[in-house]
Amino acid sequence: MRLERFSLRLADPLETANGPIEAREGFLVRVGGPGGDGGRAEDGDEDGNGDGPASGLGEATPLPGWTESLDDCRAALDGGNPDATTPAARHGVSLARADADARRAGERLCDRLAAEGPFDSDGVTDAVPVNATVGDGTSEETADAVRDAVDEGFDAVKVKVGAREAAADRERLRAARDAAPDAELRADANGAWDRETAEEMLDAAADLGFAYVEQPLSAENLSGLASLRGRGVGVGVDESLASHSAREVLAADAADVLVLKPMALGGPDRTLDAARAARDAGADAVVTTTIDGVVARLGALHVAAAVPDVRACGLATGSLLAEDLGPDPAPVRDGEMTVPEGPGLAGGALDSLY
Ligand SMILES: O=C(O)CCC(=O)c1ccccc1C(=O)O
Ligand SMILES: [Mg+2]
């Protein structure tokens, strides 16, 4: 396995209830070599044959609060076989191995994931609908950003809330709806509210026809989240899935929508298992990034493509970065991202990175 440290600045900080996200740091993970074995540690080829291009590419981009720290990620990667206690490290390795497997088989990663994954159908969605992501801002800034997103062709827009007073956020939700009368709107409070504020905000979101609100209460408060359901707007969770399994969250009836981040869940395989758990429990699944580089973004796109009936996903985050690991073979067009042709993550489109 070969690791390359990177740091990617955001074009503008993404303002959230937990403060701004300004940069994303992590490791590009390369496994295997020419004719290599995909870097499986059990085959005694941990360093991936040194010369020549790698056979698989992954990305480990920890986000403290959601995953292990950068130092713990590095240590787990150096250990060679990270487990889900260091989800970003496990993501990097499992994505790289899955990419190598798919390339060896001559198949797109999504086809491989669908064939081997937990869903009975091995059909994939070639173009995944995605939501635009609008950070905290004034009502006017929010309305402008939502209008721009609709003009660019997005049918779904997610607005970050919880960074300001409830009354101000209510105005922002209204401004978003006025700017996009026909869009599917979502809000994301990142766990910022107490029970009373959450009830009030969910009722306002329901009146405005929002589809769901992500993490209206803190991650640990599964019973509180459960009690917020049924108010005319869905309850989504993502922070809760960093500390509880999908099955625990679903058993607590805590969510209508599981918002699944492969980086925080430990990789593509674990994300598909969580999506299957959601479907078995009658909940929906949405796949999103943690604002990742192009390798993890593509990985998440392939995962989303392998989830039957996936709703619009939070994968349109490439444009939030000022710089990236390489060219983007799956730009957003008309509110969708199309899975790249060719084997693995992107056929030959990422050749310069291997
Ligand atoms: O879901 C999206 O639209 C984009 C991703 C996103 O919002 C996000 C990005 C980094 C960390 C946390 C979150 C989040 O969903 O809370
Ligand atoms: Mg969220």
Hetero compounds: 2-succinylbenzoate, magnesium ion
Query: Gap between N and C termini, in Å?
Result: 12 Å
Please provide the ordered H/E string of secondary-structure elements: EEEHHHEEHEHEHEHEHHEHHEHEE
Q: Total domains, how many?
A: 2
The CATH topology assignment of the largest domain is TIM Barrel
Oligomer: single chain
Strand ordering within the main sheet: 5-6-7-8-9-10-11
The top-level CATH class of the largest domain is Alpha Beta
CATH fourth-tier homologous superfamily of the largest domain: Enolase-like C-terminal domain
* Poorly predicted ranges: 38-48
Give a short account of the largest sheet: 7 strands, parallel
Mean pLDDT: 94
Quote the beta fraction.
Answer: 15-25%
Overall outline:
globular
SS summary, helix count:
12
Structural class category = alpha/beta
Structure explained in plain terms:
The protein is α/β, with parallel strands linked by helices and 354 residues long. The chain folds into 2 domains: 2-106, Enolase-like, N-terminal domain (Enolase-like, domain 1, 2-Layer Sandwich), CATH 3.30.390.10; 127-353, Alpha-Beta Barrel (TIM Barrel). The chain has 12 helices and 13 strands. The protein has helices at 70-79, 87-105, 109-116, 139-152, 166-179, 195-207, 222-227, 240-243, 246-251, 262-265, 268-280, 294-305; strands spanning 2-16, 19-31, 56-60, 127-129, 131-134, 156-160, 184-188, 212-214, 234-237, 257-260, 284-287, 332-333, 336-338. α7 links the parallel β8 (212-214) and β9. α3 (109-116) packs across α12 and α5 packs parallel to α6 (195-207). The longest helix has 19 residues, at 87-105. The chain binds 2-succinylbenzoate and magnesium ion.
